[in-house]
């Protein structure tokens, strides 16, 4: 009997090659030329329309230039360029991944992510530092924050509650340093921390009593040690008849309380 034959999917390997970056860069230049011809009309297109436009144009570009890639590789190039034009490029998949807690970028070709507190190096990379800066400025544009030589460091709050910190030249020596901290959309409750073993039943009762009796509580710890998660959980102990005011350098807390006034320091 003839054994079944399976072909390996090498698409991730192709996406991490210099050849992929070269083809993508050339196709990107072609797209920019076509967008200039379209003018302001392109700015009104939906993401679905942009994706269809990219698919058609990249297919035409590959056939006319006789670029030696297969259909799977062509689709990868088109998907990547759609993210460039309508989204956040290489960062888009990481930001959409719920398992990713932190994204740390040390220059365009050094990307690390933290999952469950474990830092790992990612295979994805940017074309160059200018490509990385272009994506970062696209994130900052709706926030009204500036990033240039006169203001080489920015700390901003993202619309989804996450935090973005960027340092560029002349402060950063080896290219742009980018840190993106993602936060849970559903903050942990005291019962969750109890189940996870963060504290036991005695500490649970102690914290509940301390909050209700208005005791001063100091929460300290290193990066990713759970300070924000604990503060969010402590808010569950605050009576609903109280008014809560928070003052932060960059708003990160997501308190589950009906009356919260959120302030940022300036």
Number of DSSP E strands = 8
Sequence of secondary-structure elements? HHHHHEEEHEEEHHHEE
For the record, give the distance between the C-alpha atoms at the N and C termini, rounded to a whole number. 75 Å
- Main pleated-sheet profile: 6 strands, antiparallel
Radius of gyration: 23 Å
What best-fitting shape do the alpha-carbon axes yield? elongated
**What integer is the average pLDDT?**
84
Strand content: 5-15%
In DSSP terms (H or I, runs of 4 or more residues), the helix count works out at 9
Could you estimate the helical fraction of the residues in percent? Answer: 25-40%
What is the topology?
Blueprint: H1 11-15, H2 18-38, H3 47-65, H4 71-86, H5 91-96, E1 102-106, E2 111-115, E3 118-121, H6 129-140, E4 153-157, E5 163-167, E6 177-181, H7 190-196, H8 201-212, H9 227-234, E7 244-248, E8 260-264
Parallel strand pairs: 7-8
Antiparallel strand pairs: 1-2, 1-6, 2-3, 4-5, 5-6
Q: In words, what does this structure look like?
A:
With 266 residues, the chain is α+β, with helices and mostly antiparallel strands. It is 40% helix and 15% strand. It is built from 9 helices and 8 strands. The strands form 2 sheets. The protein has a 6-stranded antiparallel sheet with strand order 3-2-1-6-5-4, with no helix packed on it. Strands 7-8 form a two-stranded parallel sheet. A hairpin with a 5-residue loop joins strand 4 (153-157) and strand 5. The N and C termini lie far apart (75 Å).
Could you give a quick summary of the protein structure above?
The chain is α+β, with helices and mostly antiparallel strands and 266 residues long.
